[in-house]
Amino acid sequence: MAEIKHFGILSVARINAAISLVVGLILSVLWVLLAGITGVARAIDGTPIGTAAINGASGLVIIIFATIVYAIVGFIIGALVAFLYNVAAGWFGGVKMELSE
Q1: What is the three-class DSSP state of 7?
Q2: In Å, how far are 14, 24, 37, 70 from 57, measured between CA atoms?
Q3: What are the extents of the domains in the chain?
């Protein structure tokens, strides 16, 4: 039985940042699409929603900003979780795993 005693903090942080970046990209694109749908619905209703260029530019900014924020937060959370695991594994022992070849 193998035991995980230690995680590389930067390694876990980088992987978590990469995963969070992808999730952030997907969620921000969905957010912009849903905002566009509600904008069209408001336009049909007669509510002024601004020009299409401004709405398109703000959607692009949201996608870029949200994706970057997700990646940064993912990196920080990944590093924190790996650090806390290493501390807890030092006190209580690591996670035991059975591996086969």
Answers
A1: coil
A2: 30, 18, 16, 20
A3: 2-93
